[in-house]
Write a structure and sequence with these properties.
Blueprint: H1 22-27, E1 34-37, E2 43-45, H2 53-61, E3 65-68, E4 76-78, E5 83-84
Antiparallel strand pairs: 1-2, 1-3, 3-4, 4-5
Length: 85
């Protein structure tokens, strides 16, 4: 039996906080890819970016599920279950 994410209830209809990583924009920095928090709409940079703001947001808030915020991508990831959703 395949494992299932146990945090699907944390997914909400959200409004993205912006078109880029809020923290990187405030710092005048750049990112590689963007991730959208499906609990609150925070847009942060991915772990391939030097600042890891999406993961830092998770550690600060415990909001478990992100979605790619890249055009043409619709995958989701649960930090707590360490799995694709």
């Amino acid at each position: 039996m395949a494992a299932r994410c146990t945090h699907l209830a944390a997914i909400h209809e959200v409004t993205p906080s912006g078109n880029g990583c809020a923290e990187c924009l405030a710092m005048g920095d750049t990112w590689v890819h963007l991730r959208l928090c499906l609990s609150c709409g925070h847009v942060g940079c991915c772990d391939s970016s030097k600042n890891h703001h999406a993961t830092k947001h998770f550690h600060a808030t415990q909001h478990p599920i992100i979605q790619s915020f890249e055009p043409g991508e619709d995958w989701r990831w649960c930090y707590l279950d360490d799995m694709a959703v």
